[in-house]
Amino acid sequence: MDIIFLGGLEIDTLIGIYDWERQQRQTVILDIEMAFDIQKAAATDDIQYALDYKTVSDRIISFVKASECLLVERLISEIAELIRNEFKVPWVKITLNKKGAIGSGIDVGITIERGDKTA
């Protein structure tokens, strides 16, 4: 299986459990890997057979900006579900970085994998 990735996708959103977090947007940084068979797109040079990473990126940005999750666990799980369902991606790996959540400049976050990479 081939891997298409989006790296360093920065999105401002409401995320967190504290009162101040419910009033002030914070930046989350996403690194996403998606399994996708690129053979037909490569053979035909036709975008209709490719995973359009611009469309995927735009959809994720729109979704995350509109979300108001309390926990990063929920947000990252919903992003994975969105990618797999809307873009027919059999496997996805996402790292969500909530930089500075526990101190200035400190990286903190979660990495998850969903689906079957070999499908």
Written description of the protein model:
With 119 residues, the protein is of the alpha+beta class. The protein has one domain: 2-Layer Sandwich (GTP Cyclohydrolase I, domain 2), CATH 3.30.1130.10. Helices cover 29% and strands 29% of the residues. The chain has three helices and four strands. The chain has a four-stranded antiparallel beta sheet, with helices on one face. Helix 2 (53-66) packs antiparallel against helix 3 (72-86). The protein starts with a strand and ends with a strand. The model has no long low-confidence stretch (mean pLDDT 94).
Helix content range of the residues, please? 25-40%
- Reading off the top of the CATH hierarchy, the class is best stated as Alpha Beta
CATH-assigned homologous superfamily: GTP cyclohydrolase I, C-terminal domain/NADPH-dependent 7-cyano-7-deazaguanine reductase, N-terminal domain
From N to C, what is the helix and strand string?
A: EEHHHEE
Reported for the largest beta sheet, the result is: 4 strands, antiparallel
Distance between the termini: 8 Å
> Would you count the extended β strands for me?
4
CATH architecture label: 2-Layer Sandwich
CATH topology: GTP Cyclohydrolase I, domain 2
- Overall, the morphology is elongated
Work out the helix count.
Answer: 3
Strand order of the largest sheet: 1-2-3-4
Structural domain tally: 1
Structural Rg: 15 Å
Strand content: 25-35%
The average pLDDT is 94
